[in-house]
Design a protein that fits this description.
The structure is a homodimer of 293-residue chains. The first copy, chain A, is an alpha+beta fold and 293 residues long. Chain A has 11 helices and 12 strands. Chain A has 2 domains: 121 residues, 60s Ribosomal Protein L30, Chain: A, CATH 3.30.1330; 144 residues, PurM-like C-terminal domain (Phosphoribosyl-aminoimidazole Synthetase, Chain A, domain 2). Chain A starts with a helix and ends in a 12-residue tail after the last strand. Chains A, B: Keywords: ATP-binding, Kinase, Magnesium, Metal-binding, Nucleotide-binding, Thiamine biosynthesis, Transferase.
Chain lengths: 293, 293
């Protein structure tokens, strides 16, 4: 069973699962497990790992339109080196502070492989689910796509400092909170835009018609992409970008742009069914390493 | 750096750390990472693993005198087998239901070693810390000690069904809530009674004088212990028992016993300094695998 099938199994067992975070009363809670071999390329500092791991959970809180309040992390490593631990905690704390949340600690475990499990909680009276999109609305993304794909290429090219910089993404908590009154459906782009569209389409029973040229592409992508096809791969399929993908009525766009502190780009329309780009089907592919509830 | 030293480092970095759970507003939050090689003996079912892993976090919530509301788990395994996953979720859900909390899902990860990270949250307006014990009070434990030590021996003896049964301990959430108005200091016995006493002594700047004969020992210990010394090792040092260790004024004992739904045993007195049993120093030893905030 691959992770997608397993997630469906889990969702069937747990009616509350299947969104970026679970709803508990007026709160949301989300957890993620990351580990060395799949999530932290060689050269990733422990500071970056702390920022990124905790940031991934903060992003899930943001994707619900909730205000992140606190995060914890369980840290497993072969040796518990003091400098590495301090660096990790520093990254975890700084990413929390960047969104107004509190990093309140965690657990330590001696583990063969560097493994981090993070949990974030947030407040929301009325969380935004994946299931509210309606045909006629527009689909948008915050910020720019492809940042993590570029970061991975930077690590692979030996540009460790740039890789670390690109991997420390800003979780869109302020944007998520600002979008909550407007967004009809929302999730983050952690599995890639293509998969996000398919997941929103499935949850909302709708389709999407997007235009490849409309995609906001991160500046760093051009430095590493081998042509237009590769650029699209990095921006639309690779994922792990932690931007927000959401739907709104077109009439709310001006208000949305005024409220959200980062750029908002319309990438297409909500339709009755099928996910297409420039008229062609968009394969439901991307980074299948699970990072959702 | 061993886990104890590392936890001290973490506590110094994070003033909120150092208790069984972190306090965030009127809530507590705690996380734990468990994995195959150290926490789940051969024969542990996935149902038991789900119960025990989530139960460990619920126990940390209980140790704060907080009412557990929800838990999540990140599940990492080499293969995501559907039956195993359903069994794990069943155990996680059942242990939550047993304490009136909601299991709201988690994350899945393909991981070389079976690894589980759990997080629980709970409500408390006035959490019980480790730091409030005063000389003249008594120190007590809920239930009976040595259950997990006996469980491990059962697994080692090939009595897999009994091992699983003993490993599915009841988290003392109802007891923790009932104790909150009375307990001056509290933690769980997950590192063993001996270490719990030392940690309470350090946090409260006090000592303890206990009597070995007063310890409530789980019935199953006698089936596996090789003599009195071994029985003490299993009950006082092995840990992983998830009973509550707490201090109260002796004048509150009757009210405590009336309020707490399980047995409460006085094991000794709070003193000015040193941790002794029958007049001899109690070594600060136990299960050093970290499971605290």
């Amino acid at each position: 069973m691959d992770e997608r099938t397993a997630l469906r199994t889990l969702a069937a067992e747990l009616p509350g699962a299947g969104d970026d975070a679970a709803v508990v009363g007026a709160q949301v809670v989300t957890t993620d497990m990351l580990h060395d071999s799949t999530d932290f390329p060689a050269g990733t500092t422990r500071y970056t790992a702390g920022w990124r791991a905790v940031g991934a959970s903060l992003s899930d809180v943001a994707a619900m339109g909730a205000d992140a309040t606190a995060a914890v992390a369980a840290y497993g490593a072969p040796t518990l080196d003091e400098d590495e631990l301090r660096a990790f905690v520093g990254g975890a704390r700084d990413v929390c502070e960047s969104v107004g949340a509190e990093y309140v600690g965690g657990d330590l475990d001696t583990h063969d492989e560097f493994t981090v499990a993070t949990t974030a909680i947030g407040d929301s009276e009325d969380p935004v689910l994946r299931s509210g999109a309606s045909p006629g609305e527009v689909v948008c993304v915050t910020g720019a796509l492809g940042r993590s794909a570029a970061g991975l290429r930077a690590f692979e090219a030996g540009d460790v400092e740039r890789g670390n910089d690109l991997f420390r993404f800003p979780p869109r908590v302020a944007s998520g909170v600002a979008l909550a009154p407007y967004a009809t459906a929302m999730m983050d782009s952690s599995d890639g835009l293509a998969r996000s569209l398919h997941q929103l389409a499935e949850a909302s029973d709708c389709g999407f018609a997007v235009s490849w040229d409309s995609l906001p592409v991160h500046d760093a992508v051009a430095d590493y992409a081998a042509g237009d096809g590769d650029e699209r791969e990095m921006a639309a399929y690779f994922g792990e970008d932690f931007e927000l993908v959401f739907t709104v009525p077109e009439s709310d766009l001006a208000a949305v742009r005024a409220a959200v502190p980062v750029s908002v780009t319309v990438v297409g329309d909500v339709t009755d069914d099928a996910v297409v780009a420039d008229g062609d089907p968009v394969p439901d592919e991307g980074y299948t390493h699970a990072s959702d509830e």
